[in-house]
Design goal:
9 helices, 2 domains, about 40% helix
């Protein structure tokens, strides 16, 4: 049973999320304080974190940044949950490492769909095949879930890894943002193209080779060039 850590200081919202998680056969653990959530996540690494932005103690952005900096929790999928709907706030959340962003008030069913999508994409295959993708100096080992450039390991979040894998599997093709959202994120929602852009920017920062190899096709999407 996947374990979900809910970091939310509004008791009613936390209880609502936990109820829907329970209906979906997920185990829910509720923490209302950012600092205590970090301790809990390090003690028992969750399968996914639903993280409120405004929290007592450490805020959600700080918690997200610290989870990503810790090797034990660096790859855990994170959905950021907040009442702030401005695009700048959504981008800031994605910049510090969130995989997805849900704005209050939200549909519990939509939140559950996003939880299922992230868990499905992050879960290893039951019988992983030995498969290595190579693009220039970038090497991606699908089964071991590792990425390196020029032999040096690079730490990626779960969603960054899946996006890079998809781009490498479709080298030479122009991929629209909508297609990336559908095939990598498993759903579509208004304004989500910025999610793709932020994740691409993070890949380029972590893998400098992609600055030239991963080109932007104006007003459409991206293309990973053949080496």
């Amino acid at each position: 049973m996947p374990g979900i850590l809910i970091v939310e200081d509004d008791a009613d919202i936390a209880a609502l999320i936990a109820h829907y998680l329970d209906k979906s056969d997920y185990s829910a653990d509720i923490i209302s304080d950012g600092g205590k959530a970090l301790v809990r996540a390090r003690e028992a690494v969750p399968d996914l974190v639903i993280l409120d932005l405004m929290l007592p103690g450490l805020n959600g952005l700080e918690v997200c940044r610290m989870l990503r900096a810790d090797p034990r929790t660096a790859a855990v999928p994170i959905i950021m949950l907040t009442a702030r709907g401005e695009e700048s706030e959504r981008i800031h959340g994605l910049d510090v490492g969130a995989d997805d962003y849900v704005v209050k008030p939200f549909s519990p069913n939509e939140l559950m769909a996003r939880v299922r999508a992230l868990l499905r994409r992050a879960a290893p295959a039951a019988e992983p095949k030995e498969r290595v993708l190579q693009c220039g100096p970038v090497r991606l080992d699908v089964a071991r879930h590792t990425v390196s450039i020029d032999g040096e390991d690079v730490r990626l979040t779960a969603k960054e890894f899946l996006l890079l894998q998809y781009l490498m599997e479709h080298r030479g093709r122009v991929l629209s943002r909508d297609r990336l959202l559908s095939d990598v994120w498993d759903y579509r929602y208004p304004g989500a193209t910025r999610t793709v852009d932020v994740h691409v920017r993070r890949l380029r920062e972590k893998l400098p080779f992609l600055e030239q190899a991963l080109v932007t096709v104006q007003q459409f999407g991206y293309k990973l060039l053949e080496p």
